[in-house]
């Protein structure tokens, strides 16, 4: 019989163990080596069995064992020491508190998934794990941020592989109480309930769970509440429910319900109202419409002023370089919801226009969440430099007439949370050698701090653990109680180990390594210098093509000829990942460039001293430096996908055979010294860049601080500047079709220009009713290429009005300094000018001379 609901009965803790409750309900335990070890030590076997979670551990341990521990003085002392450490962690000043200048008061961070720990499977891949790492680094840095998401009753599915090699899924139900989450309650003790009015007189209610991620509260909305109809209870049943209305209801709950949950949370806890709203991908886009509706209803703003205010304070991060990866809903469905009274006083026609594909070739029947995100976020970014560039190209049609490289989408490269992802054994080396476990200041190239023997020793230890774990998992997967003898020889810690694990969408090319099975077999079975490969990955449950790829790999790996040297480990998730990355020598990544927006698994590997072997895509395109691993050349010129896969697979085999293998097996005193020097270089250089601490600092200084400043400026004096900006936008948008550059006087340029000369430039501009202050007349100059295009690093200089308009023409003048030699060019353009614009071209209004 299957229970329809499960819950946890908590034991009574004696006074001496009372702090365990608090330690168990703050997820900092998951990245604090000592707290983690404390809970595991209460009963190591049980800890693994219940899925490594302190709250569950307390529920499972039994009163007898707890009483025994309460009498163990050494244990009680550890409990109190950890409790004091937690207090110090939660209270102290950190990076953010020392930051000079204006700062955001509170950032609300929305994401459809959060990957905080293996025991809280509210994620399905990189997007969610990135969000989890964002919260953890925000906590470590003292950034006042609150996470907002949904609580899915069935989390990330568990994967097993059948005898036929086919993926099977199961969905264990999660009990939030048993995981250490607490219900958000009013001061009178009643649970906070969020309500959304929907079409056909339906109402969606949600309760709010709070997970404490160190200093960061994470609010998770849950539709499992008695107030809901059965239909509405199912809204948060699982991650990314189907398509159509189920998914839309989830996104409405996340965006609209999320804003309402943040309001309740601030009211109850006394936190300041957020002045920055960050949406991780487009799923939470409705948060902006909800906030506009608030501003219109409670502050008396018009639609345009409310839009200006919301834009100023919104940061939108896009994660997908493939148009097919963007969330889109039928336009009519959205229209029904907008007409239902969900958003008070919001003009439905104008609101819907914010998500429409109005460009040539756009689909007029859909509502596009990325378009909504870009319209509502004045601050937008991609997640690596290359992905920023791809995004500017992909979304350029929203800014017609604007050069692609000026499309207002910047980039902040992702990072990973080092305390979560660095193996405890390596953290211990770090603490011994450098005094702490931070990665960004450590010089691993210093052989006196860490000897070759010590470094190689810890790398071998981590590999040994992976080998043991792989054997354990494969034996468990056989499932008939008897372990085939070959499992005892599965993998070998002395062999060069390549890891490859990820979700299985086509572009990641799970099976590229199988392109030439004989070549792969030869590498795996080389009698002197073999290679072994550890693979993991989950296919989306509805994606049979991904399951076929997994099946191909599993079948290949079961061939007795290669069986000990290549293994597919089922159920790739955070728990497996934590042991998998450190246990490899090399991390392989072979997506179709440029479809991997960033990729983060290779960063987690690098922080553990693993070398990357990757296509130059995402982060690797930016940070590959010739010494931190290998770049698989991209066959961009191939005439079709087959040819491209052939060429790239062949380059992959060549690199392994001619570069990796010789270097790995070249030994001095049993240690691969040249290999280790690449490891040292990787850990030192990528230790500075690849962390989510660096990433969160970038978000704060480059996007959150400006967003908070714009928000404050627009809000001041009863939203005076928001109204003024809205008026300005309307005025320049109306007048712009008639703005023109009537002439540019270049007569001052002599035939023989010399570096150091300055030249007078005069531009005559028709402003048609706009004042000279409404525009910037810009002189752009610099080197040009053979097509007369200005180089990307060109300079921009603002021309000044020379006097009042004559016959509707205003003259602007300025000096053009000739600072560089060679082919040089310039142009003049007119753009709107207002102190509250982030980019001069963000309104899509640019006029060049005809
Ligand atoms: C880091 C991580 C990912 C994302 O890795 P990519 O390199 O972006 O594919 C996916 N799943 C798990 C379990 C991870 O830990």
UniProtKB/TrEMBL annotation:
The DUF3417 domain sits at 13-120
Q: Which domain of life is it from?
A: Bacteria
PROSITE patterns attached here?
PHOSPHORYLASE (PS00102)
What are the alphabetically sorted keywords of the record? Allosteric enzyme, Carbohydrate metabolism, Glycosyltransferase, Pyridoxal phosphate, Transferase
**InterPro entries xrefs:** Agluc_phsphrylas, Glyco_trans_35, Glycogen/Maltodextrin_Phosph, Glycogen_phosphorylase_DUF3417, Pyridoxal_P_attach_site
Substrates-to-products reaction catalysed: [(1->4)-alpha-D-glucosyl](n) + phosphate = [(1->4)-alpha-D-glucosyl](n-1) + alpha-D-glucose 1-phosphate
Cofactor names: pyridoxal 5'-phosphate
According to its UniProt record, the EC number is: 2.4.1.1
The record's comment on protein family reads:
Belongs to the glycogen phosphorylase family.
This molecule's function is given as: Phosphorylase is an important allosteric enzyme in carbohydrate metabolism. Enzymes from different sources differ in their regulatory mechanisms and in their natural substrates. However, all known phosphorylases share catalytic and structural properties.
Q: What is this protein called?
A: glycogen phosphorylase
The organism is: Microbacterium gallinarum
The uppermost taxa in this organism's lineage are: Bacteria, Bacillati, Actinomycetota, Actinomycetes, Micrococcales
